[in-house]
Design goal:
The complex is a heterotrimer of chains A (about 180), B (about 575) and C (about 280). Chain A is mostly helical. Chain A is built from four helices and no strands. Chain B has four domains: about 180 residues, Pyruvate-ferredoxin oxidoreductase, PFOR, domain III (Pyruvate-ferredoxin Oxidoreductase, domain 3, 3-Layer(aba) Sandwich); about 170 residues, Rossmann fold; about 70 residues, no CATH class; about 110 residues, 3-Layer(aba) Sandwich (Rossmann fold), CATH 3.40.50. The chains are: A mainly alpha (about 180), B alpha/beta (about 575), C alpha/beta (about 280). Chains A and C meet through helix 1 of A and helix 1, helix 6, strand 7 and strand 8 of C.
Chain lengths: ~180, ~575, ~280
């Protein structure tokens, strides 16, 4: 789905500050989202998966800390809106909700995380190709590289967790207790 | 407090687990297996607030006689996992003789259960299930719990076969049941040397009588159809939705109709319209829905249109506790209409009685051209039991209708019985306008005193003079002290009275089925020889106690035992209250 | 209370973020439920509005979606089924200084709440109404709602209701709502944007949010492939909006109508008559 009809024309971050602030916001949003998913899973008694989501939240959180220390920020700059480069359903944070299930397995978590990292990597790659400011282009390439490393990390984890069985989402008790 | 948690003639099993563990299904199959083994049983469900995947427990009690109450505690708690199962601690009471089975890979059993002194037996359920590819862990739980309770393997496997929907996984799950049975057998020695074997059902052949497995809500729906209802308007509300969902396809089969309404204001007015048109009609709701319906129920009173409203009571007031039971709509049902508006209130006393009482309510409403409220509750409505097939009722639903061209027809003509022939649209020569406005005998709106008094008397008289027969209340026993109760409280009350009798304390039990209109003559007759009265009910305001005191004279002021939901009344708790009451005299 | 405050919302003195509006209660919605994103969008939109949580009220009815007030740090009112708009109207007219947000599902809003929906649009009190539409009654476990397709099979209506779906944006427009939009829970920022604009627009703002129910309507996972950004831009011409909405297929996302009706004004409060002076009309 393309952008909503109320968005302005494509607006690239003009300065390194702007760009890093947006990248930081992406990481913080991602960490918050993974924590929310972890909460959902705890409420639905899927503790193993909740722990995996907490782990992913930690990874994003560390990345956010890294950006802040590089830029010398003690707290995140506020009041920014996302550059409409990837909004709507293409936005890194929007696509994942639909893949949640109260019976999901760690493997599903990692597939979701992998898709997110890949989306983020594409985002930074696209930004790097379109950037006109050199410092922004360089920063985008660095972040793209870091996302690529995340991808490798998640793929390694994927090899270690069991594949879900064919009946992973079968619950003998229907939500409506027909019996 | 007795040392033995449960009565020796029944076994109580709790199966708990969360998201995907399938304990509700296991409990249902366990009940079906017990039926095959000739036993009776009751299954109550409880769960967390999540729509799906939350913690859940199936609470099952099995025995040689029909069961209408959970026991004071459980002989067995088998938890597939421990996620939030501690939330059910108030409902799943354990004692030193209870058996507690949990999977050590799922963590420690919650302290609240361990502190009861129950005998803990760890079983690696998850590992055991993995060893049988394609099986469900709840079938393992079934095998273990059923065997510990004394059910034969054959009965359990037959029950699984009948309920199974996916042929390619059947074998694996039959194996899982057998594996569970084996695990239970392996436990026998351990239990024997540590407190003794778990309470067990005695084996026996299946009874000769025809039996059913049914929920209270389904029974109410069936009672409606048996009573002749062929039009239902529906609006979903917990815990009444199942009455309507059972009726929807069933009505189609017998040539009736169910219409989903936009809300309760619509559904009550729809059934009044259909009943005015000559078709016996019904709806089902819970407290908040009944509250919306009251204006129109008053219309049915004033216009003398027969309707039935099933109220499946839940925790109140307001939105309250939707998925838990309480008997707190009584005051509202018997007096919650504006103006002087007599109506019928019938209270089924068990899951089985939901059928008969609803059928009776339809018959009464039609015969007396008045609205009837059926006070069921969540405990009966959403629980499932093995019952003896309810007897067919030989009384027929009949509305007194006006023949075509009846001379000088007056819809609200005064009669000795108070019931006037009702003209059904389509009948020549007897058209009239039904009206909520007070009216003359001809049905013309009137503010005249003589018309108002005549119609008020007529509407009261028709209910008061009717011969309700013996079904209005069940009186058991013959002592000078009586326990009066209604609805689902009668189950634990009856057990408490039986236990008291075994201890030499003789009590009479009176279960009211017709709550409104009041029956002073019949009450006096039923209380012949009674000196002491206690009223037992599950609500905070002692609603039945106050209602009875308003309408009846008792030999001396009655006592009251009452407490609100969400926890059900227990036989042991009532026994203690009854003994204390008797000792205080 | 004698002195009713009649002023506009105060200028914010601190920069608010979405986190300021999220409470610590964990929602019990099923994982994958669209309402989680709606909650996030609401908190983002409230942050954009800049009104502190203490000056915001979230009013709801009964249903899964209506659980939302307690998940925010605003003042919340979780009332009875279908009457949220009435309660919100009373609140906003008595306390025009508050930011009032009304929320609920399609069953609560269009079925039992249908009557109040018509009159709230007609009255045009300044508030924002969000309906999380999943074409089903979720909390009571799977009955058709007024926006459910006529052929959707269910226990309560075997074979489908056979009744045409309710068309909320058309009804809202015809009844006088000053702002009509549709959002999709799969688009967090787009939805936050629409909600913020709805709150900023004067009068009664109605946002229908397609919010999938993963438990009872799992096929709604396909919505993300089916929805599209509305090609025709928003209009303030009610006639044009009406023609467009009558052929809308329910999948166009965006602001559909933003009108110029003046919001409801309670009758002008006369100055300076004391309670005692009212006696004059009875005095002989």
């Amino acid at each position: 789905m393309s952008q909503t009809n109320n968005n302005a024309a494509l607006k690239l971050p003009g300065t390194l500050q702007d760009f890093m602030a947006q990248a930081l916001q992406m990481e913080l949003d991602a960490a918050e989202r993974y924590n929310e998913f972890a909460d959902m899973m705890e409420t639905h008694n899927n503790l193993e998966v909740a722990q995996w989501f907490r782990k992913m939240a930690e990874v994003e959180g560390k990345h956010a800390d890294q950006i802040m220390s590089e830029m010398g920020w003690s707290e995140a700059p506020s009041g920014l809106r996302m550059a409409p480069l990837l909004t709507g359903l293409e936005a890194p944070e929007s696509a994942s909700d639909a893949e949640l299930h109260y019976l999901m397995q760690p493997w599903h978590v990692l597939q979701l995380a992998l898709a997110n990292e890949q989306r983020a990597e594409r985002f930074f790659a696209k930004l790097a190709s379109l950037a006109t400011v050199e410092s922004v282009r360089k920063a985008a390439l660095e972040l793209q590289q870091e996302e690529a490393e995340h991808i490798e990390m998640v793929q390694a984890w994927l090899k270690k967790v069991p594949q879900p069985t064919a009946s992973w989402d079968q619950d003998p008790d229907p939500p409506r207790y027909d019996s | 407090m007795q040392e033995q948690i449960s009565a020796p003639s029944s076994v109580s099993i709790a199966l708990a687990g969360s998201g995907g563990s399938g304990v509700m299904t296991a409990g249902t199959v366990l009940l079906a297996a017990a039926a095959k083994a000739g036993a009776y049983g009751l299954m109550v469900r409880t769960s967390g607030p999540q729509i799906r995947g939350g913690e859940a427990a199936a609470l099952v009690r099995l025995g040689p006689q029909p069961i209408s109450s959970l026991d004071d505690g459980f002989d067995l708690l088998l938890a597939i996992d421990w996620q939030n199962v501690n939330r059910f601690a108030d409902e799943i009471v354990l004692g030193p003789r209870s058996v507690l089975i949990g999977d050590p890979d799922e963590g420690e059993a919650p302290e609240v259960f361990k502190a009861t002194g129950a005998r803990y037996i760890p079983l690696s359920l998850k590992k055991m299930a993995k060893e049988i590819p394609g099986c469900w862990i709840n079938m393992l739980a079934l095998g273990i719990s059923g065997t510990l309770a004394g059910l034969p393997l054959q009965a359990m496997q037959d029950a699984v076969r009948e309920s199974w929907k996916k042929p390619d996984t059947l074998e694996a799950n039959l194996l899982a049941v057998a594996r569970g049975a084996q695990a239970a057998a392996d436990m026998a020695e351990q239990l024997a040397t540590n407190g003794g074997p778990m309470a067990q059902l005695q084996g026996g052949a299946a009874p000769d009588t025809k039996r059913w497995m049914i929920s209270g809500n389904e029974a109410a729906g069936f009672g409606a159809i048996r009573g002749g209802v062929r039009f239902v308007a529906a609006y979903p509300i917990t815990p009444a939705t199942e009455v309507l969902e059972w009726l929807a396809p069933s009505l189609i089969k017998v040539g009736g109709t169910l219409l989903q309404a936009e809300d309760e204001l619509a559904s009550i007015n729809m059934i009044i319209g259909a009943a005015y048109g000559g078709v016996p009609s019904l709806t089902a709701t819970a407290g908040p829905g009944l509250a919306l319906m009251t204006e129109a129920i008053g219309l049915a009173v004033a216009a003398e249109v027969p309707i039935v409203v099933v109220d499946v009571m839940r925790g109140g007031p307001s939105t309250g506790i939707p998925a838990k039971s309480e008997q707190s709509d009584l005051s509202f049902a018997v007096s919650g209409l504006h103006g002087d508006a007599p109506r019928l209130v019938v209270a089924p006393s068990s899951i089985s009685d939901c059928l008969g009482a609803t059928q009776w309510a339809v018959q009464l409403a039609e015969a007396l051209q008045a609205p009837a409220i059926v006070l069921s509750d969540q405990y009966m409505g959403q629980s499932r039991a093995i019952i003896d097939r309810p007897a067919d009722s030989d009384s027929v639903t009949q509305r007194l209708t006006a023949p075509a061209n009846a001379p000088d027809y007056k819809r609200y003509r005064n009669t000795e019985s108070g019931v006037s022939p009702m003209a059904i649209p389509g009948t020549e020569g007897v058209s009239y306008t039904a009206d909520g406005l007070e009216h003359s005998e001809a049905g013309i709106p009137s503010s005249q005193s003589k018309d108002h008094v005549l119609q008020l008397n007529k509407r009261e008289r028709k209910l008061a003079l009717h011969d309700y027969g013996p079904y209005w209340a069940d009186v058991e026993g013959d002592a000078d002290a009586v326990v009066i109760t209604f609805g689902s409280s009668s189950g634990p009350a009856r057990e408490a009275v039986a236990r008291a009798r075994a201890m030499g304390v003789n009590l009479r039990l009176m279960v009211l089925r017709l709550l409104a209109p009041a029956r002073p003559e019949q009450m006096t007759a039923a209380l012949q020889g009674v000196k002491h009265v206690i009223v037992v009910e599950q609500n905070h305001g002692a609603q039945l106690y106050r209602y009875l005191r308003a309408w009846y004279d008792f030999p001396q002021p009655p006592a009251s035992y009452h407490r609100p939901g969400p926890l059900p009344l227990r036989p042991g708790e009532l026994l203690n209250a009854l003994l204390e009451w008797r000792n205080a005299q | 209370m004698n002195d009713i405050v009649n002023e506009a919302p105060a200028v914010p003195v601190q920069v608010l973020t979405a986190a300021n509006f999220k409470s610590s209660y964990k929602p019990i919605w099923c994982p994958g439920c669209g309402d989680y994103t709606v909650l996030s969008s609401v908190t983002k939109a409230l942050a954009i509005m800049g009104v502190p949580p203490k000056d915001c009220a979230v009013v709801s009815g009964i249903g899964c979606s209506s659980r939302i007030p307690a998940y925010t740090t605003c003042y919340g009112f979780h009332g009875v089924h279908g009457r949220s708009l009435a309660a919100a109207t009373g609140l906003k007219v008595a306390r025009p200084d508050l930011q009032v947000l009304v929320a609920g599902g399609d069953g609560d809003g269009y079925s039992i709440g249908g009557n109040h929906f018509l009159h709230a649009c007609r009255r045009n009190v300044d508030m924002t109404y969000l309906v999380m539409d999943n074409h089903v009654y979720g909390m009571t476990k799977g009955q058709p709602s007024p926006t459910t397709e006529p052929d959707w099979d269910s226990k309560l209506s075997p074979g489908g209701t056979g009744v045409r779906v309710f068309n909320p944006p058309v009804v809202a427009l015809a009844s006088g709502a000053n702002f009509v939009a549709r959002a999709f829970a799969g688009d967090l920022h787009g939805t936050a944007d629409i909600i913020a604009k709805a709150m900023q627009h004067p009068g009664f703002s109605f946002v229908e949010i397609l919010s999938p129910c993963v438990t009872f309507r799992p096929e709604q996972r396909d919505w993300r492939k089916l929805v599209r950004a509305a090609v025709v831009p928003s209009t303030d011409d009610a006639g044009r909006a009406a023609r467009r909405l009558m052929t809308d297929d329910g999948l166009n996302i965006g602001i559909l109508y933003a009108g110029n009706r003046a919001p409801y004004q309670a009758s002008v409060r006369a100055a300076g008559c004391s309670v005692a002076e009212l006696e004059a009309e009875f005095a002989l």
